[in-house]
Structure formats: structure tokens, C-alpha cells
Specification:
The chain has helices spanning 42-59, 102-115, 125-128, 142-146, 164-173, 188-201, 206-217, 254-258, 264-275, 282-291, 316-321, 325-329, 381-395; strands spanning 3-5, 63-70, 73-80, 96-97, 183-184, 238-240, 244-246, 261-262, 296-298, 301-303, 308-310, 332-333, 335-336, 347-353, 358-364, 369-375, 401-403. It has 406 residues and is of the alpha+beta class. The longest helix has 18 residues, at 42-59.
């Protein structure tokens, strides 16, 4: 078996530095923009293979797309097939569900509204949806919704909530279990309402704001909320227990919380723009900065708008702790960050799952390194984090060293 010799641990090279978040929060860079995918050097390909191939075998994953960005250049690799029991290989146009990685798109849409001053994160939710006046949402602001700190909104809506009228009735009757900003409870209804109100503040629907405005502004041509018929042949099937072929089912505020479907090429472009948005206009640059700013500290992680952030020094154990099922399923006390910062040496990541798919995105802005992994099976978050970490460690070396036993 081939073995990758990894460099020093992530977070060990660059001294810690931070800068204050200001009203004109902008990222500067080398104007790399988002480069088109290029051919991988063989050592890099082998370094990724040695991580991904055993991962797929261990978890019986039919197919994966893996993309990395290194120094502004994107590289994409494909493995396996688009559906269990079929022979169609995964390729550049294969579309995967990314589950809750969709939340970083929703966070970006809301942050874009903040940057353009159509959305004020400190105003209560009821300001943007008057039907919520006189409810708990007079005290819950947009930032609380975007960071899961509203006061106990659950992971999922109850099964009885199906239509928009049900959503409104649920929110009108909801009773908090904690004060706003006292705890983080990861929640689809929370980020879902954030996205819904961000679009409402623009006098439009979320689908229109995302598909007609944000995605084209970012140059993402193969990213969808609803895969069009013309692209349906590229849409992979997930596999669930019992080798059942599945795709995500509709649900309340699903587009806002877990609705994005995309290719590895498009998602690595999104990561490149998160690393260096200098090719974008001022409001989008500010939006990307806002999404990666830590507003609440929970354990070793800081919660941004969609993205989850770890400030240097960070370790693999720290990142694994931030991606446990306990972190997703249980409330955790938070500490508001007094002066939210955009640390240049941060590690940023997000996992996402649907019943049949598992996704992961992570990047190191200071080193212009990022990785995305898309799979048509849901497998443990910890395994995604470890695999992504190993790939990023390998990429940090100018020449990836791969040793093959004789």
C-alpha cells in the first residue's frame, strides 16, 4: 500500500494574527479569482488517491468527486460511479447533493444583503416578517438566526409542518428554551428563516435571489436548487441503508437549509472565492468576509454565517470536536465574541448530508489551500474531516512525497 509522508500539522506554520471587523470589511489578495481546473501533477493525484480510495472502500461509497485548490489553481478528481449498481462513471458534470453545505450559500446571500444594506443583522426577525410581531421573534435578530443562537429552534421542523402556512404557524407558536445568544442549537428552521427573510428583505423569493442573482454573480453555472430536466442525466443517485437509491425529499425551507446540488468544479470555485474574493465587486467581497467572521464561540469553534471557523492554533482534534453528532444534535452554551474578527490564519469548514449523500468543504485562506469532497453516500463526519485534513496536509508541501514500499 502506498503511504503519504505528511508535513507538519496544520496551524503550525503561520503565527496567529487577527484584525478588527469594520464597516468596510474587505478581503485583499493576489487577484487570483477562481481559476479553471487544470491537470493534476502525478504526486498530488497519488496523494489524494491514497486518502480517498481506502475511504470509499471502508464506507462502500459508490462514487466521489474530490477537488482541491492550491495557489489559485483548481484540480478535480473523480472516482467510481454515479449510482449504486450502474456503470456511469462520475465526471466533471456529475451533480451531487451537498446537504448542509448549502448553508454557506444561504449565509453568503444574507451577508450580501448586509453588505448592500438591505438587511440589518441586529434587527428582529419580526421587522422583516410582520406576521411574527408579538411573538418570540421580536427578540430574535437576524444574526441569531444565521448562527443558530435564537434560543432553541430544533434541528428539524416537526413532521406536521409542510406548507408555508404551517411554517408561519409554527414560528408564531414557538416558545424559546433559552434567551437569544445564550446557546447554539444547530437548526434547519433557524438558518432557513434567515435565508427566507434575507430574500424577503429584497422583495423576492429565496429561489429567485439564489438562482437568478447570487449564483450567476459568482459564476456558478452548474449549481442548482432544482436540477433542470436538461441536466437530470448528470444528477447522481445517493445510496441509503439497504442499498436503496435515494434523492432528497422536499421539506419546509429546504432550499435555504439543505437544497443546493452542485458539481465539485463549481464548489471548489466557491471555495476559491471564499479564500480570495478580490475578483468580485465590493459588496460580494464584504459578504464573503462576513460569512467567515466568528460571532459566537462554542468550544474550540467560532460560528460564522454558514461557515464554522477555527482560529490558529488549531489541531485535528479541535476540528473533529466541532464536527461531532453531539455538536449538531445538542444545545451548547456560547460566548458572544466581543469584537468579531476575520483571522487571516483561520481554518474554515462545513459538513453536509442528505439521506444518500455526504459532502465536506474546508480551506486555509492564508495558504490558498482548499478541498471539497462530494460522495453519493452519507458517511461519518469525522471520517470526512480526517480525509480532508490529510489531503490539505499533503498539499502544503511544495512537492508531495509519496513512498511506496518495495
Amino acid at each position: 500500500m502506498r503511504r503519504v509522508t505528511l508535513p507538519m500539522p496544520l496551524g503550525a506554520r503561520v503565527p496567529r494574527a487577527t484584525r478588527a471587523l469594520t464597516a468596510a470589511l474587505l478581503l485583499t489578495g493576489t487577484n487570483l479569482g477562481a481559476a479553471a481546473p487544470v491537470a493534476l501533477d502525478e504526486p498530488v493525484r497519488r496523494a489524494i488517491d491514497v486518502v480517498i480510495q481506502p475511504l470509499m472502500a471502508a464506507h462502500d461509497i459508490p462514487g466521489m468527486s474530490v477537488a482541491v485548490t492550491q495557489g489559485g489553481q483548481a484540480h478535480v478528481l473523480h472516482y467510481g460511479v454515479t449510482a449504486q449498481g450502474q456503470s456511469t462513471p462520475v465526471g466533471d458534470q456529475t451533480i451531487f447533493e451537498i446537504g448542509s453545505v448549502s448553508k454557506v450559500f444561504t449565509g453568503t446571500l444574507g451577508a450580501w444583503g448586509i453588505a448592500r444594506k438591505t438587511l440589518d443583522p441586529v434587527l428582529p426577525a419580526s421587522h422583516y416578517w410582520p406576521a411574527l410581531a408579538g411573538t418570540a421573534f421580536d427578540r430574535v435578530n437576524l444574526l441569531n438566526l444565521g448562527t443558530y443562537t435564537a434560543g432553541g429552534l430544533p434541528l428539524q421542523f416537526p413532521d406536521a409542518v409542510k406548507e408555508e402556512a404551517d411554517v408561519l404557524a409554527y414560528f408564531q407558536q414557538w416558545t424559546p428554551t433559552a434567551d437569544p445568544a445564550a446557546q447554539r442549537q444547530y437548526s434547519n428552521p433557524s438558518i432557513g428563516l434567515f435565508g427566507y427573510l434575507a430574500a424577503r428583505a429584497e422583495n423576492t423569493d429565496f429561489d429567485i435571489a439564489m438562482v437568478k442573482e447570487l449564483l450567476p454573480a459568482l459564476g456558478l453555472q452548474n449549481t442548482y436548487l432544482r436540477v433542470p430536466q436538461a441536466q437530470s442525466g448528470h444528477y447522481a443517485f445517493g445510496v441509503a441503508k439497504g442499498d436503496t437509491r435515494v434523492r432528497v425529499s422536499p421539506g419546509p425551507l429546504d432550499a435555504e437549509a439543505y437544497g443546493i446540488k452542485t458539481t465539485a468544479g463549481d464548489l471548489i470555485r466557491f471555495v476559491q472565492l471564499a479564500i480570495d474574493p478580490s475578483a468580485l465587486d465590493g459588496s460580494l467581497r464584504e459578504a464573503f468576509a462576513l460569512t467567515q467572521t466568528g460571532y459566537y464561540q462554542v468550544g474550540g469553534m467560532r460560528q460564522g454565517l454558514g461557515w464554522e471557523i477555527y482560529e490558529d492554533p488549531f489541531t485535528l482534534d479541535t476540528v473533529l470536536a466541532g464536527n461531532t453528532s453531539t455538536m449538531a444534535l445538542e444545545p451548547h452554551a456560547v460566548r458572544p465574541v466581543a469584537q468579531p474578527t476575520l483571522s487571516p490564519t483561520r481554518f474554515v469548514n462545513k459538513t453536509g448530508s442528505t439521506r444518500g449523500f455526504g459532502a465536506y468543504a474546508a480551506f486555509l485562506p492564508a495558504e490558498q489551500l482548499g478541498v471539497v469532497m462530494l460522495a453519493n453516500r452519507n458517511y461519518p463526519n469525522g471520517e470526512r474531516v480526517k480525509a480532508g485534513w490529510a489531503i490539505l496536509e499533503a498539499l502544503r508541501e511544495p512537492a508531495v512525497r509519496v513512498d511506496t514500499p518495495r
